[in-house]
Structure formats: structure tokens, C-alpha cells
Amino acid sequence: MSTPPPPTPRALASGPEGPGALRPLLDTVLGALDTGRRARGGPLPAGGPEAVAARLRDALGEILPEHGDPQALRTLVHALAEGAADPADPLCAAHLHCPPLAVAAAADLAATVLNPSLDSWDQAPAASELEALVTRELAHRAGLADAVVTTGGTESNHLALLLARESHGGIRLVHGANAHHSLPRAAWLLGLPEPVVVPAPSGTLDLAALHRALTDVAGPRGSLLVAATAGTTDAGLIDPLPEIAGLCAAHGARLHIDAAHGGGLLFSDRHRAKLTGLEAAHTVTLDLHKLGWQPIAAGLLAVRHPRDLDVLHQHADYLNADDDTASGLPDLLGRSLRTTRRADILKTAVTLKTLGRTGLGALVDHVCARASEFADLVHDHPGFELYDRPVISTVLFRPADATDDAVAAVRRRLLTEGRAVLGRARLDDRLWLKTTLLNPDTRPDDLAALLKLVEGTTHG
Ligand SMILES: Cc1ncc(COP(=O)(O)O)c(C=O)c1O
User: Where is this region: Disordered (predicted)?
Assistant: First the structure.
């Protein structure tokens, strides 16, 4: 049998020729991912920003050559993989940056090939139904009624403030000092008054201070929006949700819970109870590109009542003409602030169905257990100080007796040498190294190696 000719550069990904065109290209991509990873040889490229940028510029060459280069796919995928910070490497453990599941990445390819656009039914007949069903199911798991798809925690928080403003005609945000920066930023974007910042001296929102704030800043009922956090960015801590919900109810304040980080605990029998109180919120931010092993983007905003989303309604005759809607074509335009919108829900739907709740829960339990083991290692090592036991899978630690400058220098040296990606967080007015363990393949040996590496870098 003769081998088929290579696909022409202008072959389409879908249609009858699509699979035949894609298959060899996928081989090229998978090969280049592998050669790039080997060339990197560690969790991130060595040499720091200038060296990485120079290598990338060399690989890229002329950006828009007069005549095309058939090797571009291999060259650029290799270059990107060689220069990646790879969350699948156990020593890449800084941020809420997860290694995506293969099955989710494969599903995402299908979304890319089919290219449904979720702003009108005639561009996404099945995808729109899939999105409606899966978002509702995820919202129900959080104790709410419905959810919309977003690009991540930032967009979800922004949307939560917008819904609150629209349903109450002007609101003021009250958030903890531990809240994600996207919350005050959303208040700024929406032209809301300066938020009230409630102290969080031990990393979670202080209840007595919240009570004082709600008493002192009292306005018309519902004009205050309290934002609590279930899984802080820096330490993975969970605000006391039931107590905060009780205070909001007593003061007539609206409650938003940013569970972008901690929302994945909902899948776990062992850890779900940490999210008790979530169901009392008016809106909840969820984000499965953190503790959910999804390729970016996989955000959601869940709402208490389906009608809460009505304020997003828009009319554009080319997408949702009244007579089309009246004759039964679903109106999708009110399910986002965006217009053209990819079918990000497919990878999530495939993941939920492939692993099931217990499969996802097992991944959650596993990374939480690894974090606990890492905390034990740190605690038992005389050369390190542990901030606290992990609540989710974030462990903060620092070399004992080091200055903040020395802690920062350790992190930068590991980054520059391409040996480990650790984060940084300031708590108790001291700088800590941060590990967020999201890789379910990390082994106990990897944790020991990580600590040894930091020890060697501190004293080296
Ligand atoms: C608690 C929390 N909320 C919101 C966000 C923002 O999410 P995204 O980066 O997906 O916009 C983050 C990001 O780390 C986060 O930790």
C-alpha cells in the first residue's frame, strides 16, 4: 500500500477530509511535544527570561515569510514545549496551574475542530444543549440552580458583581484582605464605590471585623455584597462560610463565594464538608482549570435562581430574532458577556463522564494527601519552617532563619536554573515559598527531591 500524500497546508480540520488531514499533523504535534520536553529536561527552561526569549526568537525566525514553511508546526510546537513551565513535572508546583487530563485535551481538540460558537443555536445546536445540561448539573452540585461558562475565576467574579449591581441597583463590595485581586478590580471596572476591606489576619476573613463592617456601612437592604473565599490563592484557606452566610442573612447583605480554587472539593467525599455554606451564596465562582484538571479555560459562575441571569439578556437580530425565539430556537446570547464563544464545556463534560464523581474525587483526595505528606516532611526537617497544615493542597514553607530577601532569591535561582517552579506568598508579614500540589502523578520521592533541592539552593 502506498502512503497517503501529506496534507496540503490549507487542508481543513473538519469536513470529509478533516480526519485524514489531521492525523499526520497530530503525529507531528505529539512528536514535537516530546522532543521539546526532552530538550527542556526539567520543569521549566533554564537560563531565565533573556535566554528563553532568544531561543524562542531563533526558532520563530521570520514571522510572516513571503512563502510558507511546512515545518512550522513541528518547529513552533517544539519551541513552545522546550520553553514551557510544565505542570506535569512534579517540580512545577507553584500556582493553581494544573496538568490537564489527556481525555480533556482530546475532547478540547474536538471542540476546536467542530468550532461551535455558543452565541446562537444555529452555530451550536448540540453544544448549546450540552452546555445547558452540564452547567446546571455542576451548579446543583454546588447547591445552586444554574451556571454560565466563563474564561476563569476573574471573569466569574466580575460577572458576580455585575449581577449583584443589576439586581440591587448599586452595591458596595465588602471583601476580605485575603480575596483575589480580581474582586476589587471588578468593582473598579464596574464603577462601584471603593470596596470595604475586612482584615484577614490569619489568612481567613475575620468574623468580628465583618460584623463591624456590616454594621458600620449599613445601607439599603441588599446594597452590600460580601465576597468570601473558598480556597485562597496564597494558602488555600477557606473562609468560615456558614458563619459568613449567617452574618449576611442577619444584615440583609448579598453573598458571593469565590470557590475558584476550592470548588473541586465538591467531588470528594473526604473534603466536601469543607465547603458547607456554599449553598447559601447568591453566586459562586467555580473554575475547573484549577482543581479540576482541565485545559484552560474552564470557569463557571453559578447562580441561586435561573432568573438571576435575566439581566444578561441582549437582543441582536442576527442571533436571537424575536420570531426565531418565539418559534422555539433557543436564545443563547444572555448566557455570557461574550458573543462568539467556544465549546469549553465539551472537555468538562467528557471529563465528568469519563472519571465520574468518585474518579475526580480520588484525584482531589490524592493531591490533598500529597500536600499533607509534604507538610510532614517540612515539619520534620530542622532546616525548614512550615506555615501551617494544608487545608487543600497548598503548602507554605521557608528555610529556617532566612530573611525575606533570601527566600525570594531561592525561588528566583530555582526558576533561572530551570530546576523548580515554586510560588511566593506573604503571610504573617513574612515571605513564604509556596507549593500548590495539583499533579496526581507526583510521588513521595518527588516531594523529598523538591525539599532537598530547596535546601541545596538555600545553602549553595
Ligand atoms: C481564589 C481565586 N479567585 C479567582 C482567581 C482568578 O482565576 P483566573 O486566573 O482563572 O481568572 C484565582 C486565580 O488564581 C484565585 O485563586
Answer: 1-20
The last residue of one of the domains, among 328, 354, 380, is 354
- Which residues of the chain fall below pLDDT 70? 1-5, 221-222, 460
Ligand 1 centroid – CA 260 distance (Å)? 6
Q: Does the beta carbon of 158 lie inside 6 Å of ligand 1?
A: no
- The answer, yes or no, to whether any atom of ligand 1 lies below 6 A from the CB of 156, is no
Residue 11 lies in a domain: no
Residue 3 within a domain = no
Ligand 1 center to 290 CA (angstroms): 8
233 lines ligand 1 (CB under 6 A): yes
Task: Write out pLDDT tens, residues 266-298.
Answer: 999 999 999 999 999 999 999 999 999 999 999
pLDDT digits (tens, 9 = 90+) for 194-206: 999 999 999 999 9
pTM for this prediction: 0.97
What's the pLDDT score for residue 168?
A: 87
The number of beta carbons lying within 10 Å of the beta carbon of residue 423 is 19
Q: Which domain covers residue 164, as residue numbers?
A: 104-354
* Predicted local confidence at residue 458, as pLDDT: 87
- Distance (Å) from CA 240 to ligand 1 centroid: 19
Cα(382) to centroid of ligand 1, in Å?
34
